[in-house]
Amino acid sequence: xxxxxxxxxxxxxxxxxxxxxxxxxxxxxxxxxxxxxxxxxxxxxxxxxxxxxxxxxxxxxxxxxxxxxxxxxxxxxxxxxxxxxxxxxxxxxxxxxxxxxxxxxxxxxxxxxxxxxxxxxxxxxxxxxxxxxxxxxxxxxxxxxxxxxxxxxxxxxxxxxxxxxxxxxxxxxxxxxxxxxxxxxxxxxxxxxxxxxxxxxxxxxxxxxxxxxxxxxxxxxxxxxxxxxxxxxxxxxxxxxxxxxxxxxxxxxxxxxxxxxxxxxxxxxxxxxxxxxxxxxxxxxxxxxxxxxxxxxxxxxxxxxxxxxxxxxxxxxxxxxxxxxxxxxxxxxxxxxxxxxxxxxxxxxxxxxxxxxxxxxxxxxxxxxxxxxxxxxxxxxxxxxxxxxxxxxxxxxxxxxxxxxxxxxxxxxxxxxxxxxxxxxxxxxxxxxxxxxxxxxxxxxxxxxxxxxxxxxxxxxxxxxxxxxxxxxxxxxxxxxxxxxxxxxxxxxxxxxxxxxxxxxxxxxxxxxxxxxxxxxxxxxxxxxxxxxxxxxxx
Amino acid sequence: xxxxxxxxxxxxxxxxxxxxxxxxxxxxxxxxxxxxxxxxxxxxxxxxxxxxxxxxxxxxxxxxxxxxxxxxxxxxxxxxxxxxxxxxxxxxxxxxxxxxxxxxxxxxxxxxxxxxxxxxxxxxxxxxxxxxxxxxxxxxxxxxxxxxxxxxxxxxxxxxxxxxxxxxxxxxxxx
Amino acid sequence: xxxxxxxxxxxxxxxxxxxxxxxxxxxxxxxxxxxxxxxxxxxxxxxxxxxxxxxxxxxxxxxxxxxxxxxxxxxxxxxxxxxxxxxxxxxxxxxxxxxxxxxxxxxxxxxxxxxxxxxxxxxxxxxxxxxxxxxxxxxxxxxxxxxxxxxxxxxxxxxxxxxxxxxxxxxxxxxxxxxxxxxxxxxxxxxxxxxxxxxxxxxxxxxxxxxxxxxxxxxxxxxxxxxxxxxxxxxxxxxxxxxxxxxxxxxxxxxxxxxxxxxxxxxxxxxxxxxxxxxxxxxxxxxxxxxxxxxxxxxxxxxxxxxxxxxxxxxxxxxxx
Lengths: 539, 175, 321
Known about the structure:
The complex is a heterotrimer of chains A (539), B (175) and C (321). With 175 residues, chain B is of the alpha+beta class. Chain B has 3 helices and 12 strands; from the N terminus they run ββαββββαβαβββββ. Chain C is an alpha+beta fold. In chain C, strands 1, 2, 3, 4, 5, 6 and 7 form a 7-stranded mixed β-sheet that branches. Strand 6 of chain B pairs antiparallel with strand 10 (318-320) of chain C.
């Protein structure tokens, strides 16, 4: 039996399912229609079975059940296809049985019982893959009917499937004379800006409950005459761009707001003024034209770091990282990806090509100051991290440590941080940090040759402890990496060797901070006798 | 300045002016390496060495990554120094690492061993001073070969430094 | 390289002997005498004779941190309230010493930290003002009420008073049957506390050590004893009560919060694990006072060596990297 025959055969035997239009194969796709009688209702669906079936394709089911009339119900896509949650099977017959059973389950839950999920889903906006706007939270509560200008910047141009897609970020809202910045970091806020329009309408502009309105006339009930007057004024301006973005804002659950964006052709605004019969007054109207929606994403920290971030105690910390070689740069990127937003880097060193193989640096940046390259890298990762840099802070510290006045200033400066990671493997730095008053959290990390151990010392006696332990762990082999023409021997270890220890150590440190337990010195020791193992030795 | 090697209980004393002189000599040859001999005397039951002077080589070859010190004229100069009162003897070597840390390379370690074993050398524990030079300053590293191991010294921490530099921190804001 | 734990602990004790710092100790004693005389002159008959407390009086001192205390016992009618007593003594000491010392309000005492003297030494004296419970009762029972200046474990600030017969606290340690071992262990735990910046008050460590000796059979060499006391703290600190020998209704265990006790128990657990696993780690928990290192034969014999035969050293052509 071929594929088409199997489908017809199996579907025909399912209880309550009648084939209303026979299955045919066009290209590789099988089409047909069915009527499903279940729990007293009969619903018709077009069935489309894609070539990959019964396997999934691009992470979604390769069978579609479509009924445009059902779009107002939950778990129905804009094209009327039902989102069924089904089981996996590689057997065509078994898979068909699973999928029809899941479709019946959808009918019970969402059509018959009218269940609404507690989980909020954004309204469905017609897909447009040429532009996406990223917005983040701002420190302003919008009220219904508020409108004005917003600014945005071009972030990047990429590809989605085969189509070019431009990403822009929303920068600032201007309402009358006030302006409100989006919470991006300084680097992003300083980008070149263009201007668009916004209106806050409070209620999501929908039809069929979950779908964005598609015609300008349908938006009319959501806006005020004041806004239409404003739009009328704007339509008379000249624009450099072909289209002006209009952000449409509304409330969603949990006191949050969401923005959708519609593009207004610069030469053809969708609004006009209509004379009120019998008067000399005019009223603002929208034309009966299609709206060109583009995509938006809420990129505020809650969502940007939503899939996984460090505990709030760590995220909100003011962090100093001294020494950004293999260890420090790994610490830095991990903290930034984990949501940390205030990071200061101190290192006087210059990145050379041979640093790239095991630290967070790139060949493409050439010879470069480590602090500059890493801070660039970190701000590329996160739009929320504010970086401060110093290349000679520690040099000054060493010179001035014995001058009591400077010493006070120095210790004061260092004590402004909540969390200090010293990754310099410089005993002098450990010595200076030991002088700081607690309860600062300081972690001095170093790695022994071949990344056999990672040592992490905390005050008090950080300096002494680190030296004691290092001496104890020393095996006496001085098989350091010492290439031709180089008097900077360094330990031998790969990115993988180092990162696995740094990550383990950071996990241990952040767990202890989140548990509010006092920091302890520890070291990690590795063995390869029985597979690779890491053991924690806490003091 | 006094440097101490806790591990073996020995120390080094060197005058700031001599250190300045060596750094200046190193800077004059920057970005190439440069160096010379250290002469001085053992005191306090040979537990401390006072470095008094340097003897510079008449002939040397150097690059940014290496320094080869010649011997021409050394015997005479060292002979003269030994007849002084107090008598000064050869105690070790110094050289610079332009733009590098003052850490001995593999070549440096084996050089020290070769010196200690040489028939014309009568000290067992030659010192090695490495000066890490950069355009912003210098860093000193003192080492000694003791029982065939290289040991490092640390600066005693009650030293007063007088240099003052502005505390400047810049914020990264550009694109 | 394994460390002989007993030999090391002996060296720790030796290097921390108070007698090694006799000169500094003398300075402390002189200063305390001076303060005592100043207080007597100022308060006259309102004050009984001040006396010494702290570890030196108990023979559990170590030379890294002198906790030299001076107890000032006031008469019942000298002040209306304990708070007034405390502020009066503070104001007096502050006025008198503000130019030569930092004068600080502490938990139950007033701390004086004198400026570094010509030898580079710093003298610290804690003055503990106390008031007899009832008129003329002090000579009989030696009990005093103290003012609690700041939150102190579970004991609240301001409101509470610690009644304490400090003289019997001193006798408590002095009079213990196994006093030498007890003192050794107390001194070691103080060394640990000092170098590792730990919270428990010395008095707490003293009492819990004594309790451990009372509750458990503690014998063997010095490491065995220390370990037994650490195990006792690890297992019992959360439940133990430590009545103040000066006044059994005071529980010194209350000077730590529950979370402090958890930390202390965990400290002991980790410390025993690490030392049992690798004897070298004992050095990082119980370091030798580097100011008075034990005469290391090996190290003391080290010197810059000269080969046999006398000659002029002339080094060969040498290449450096």
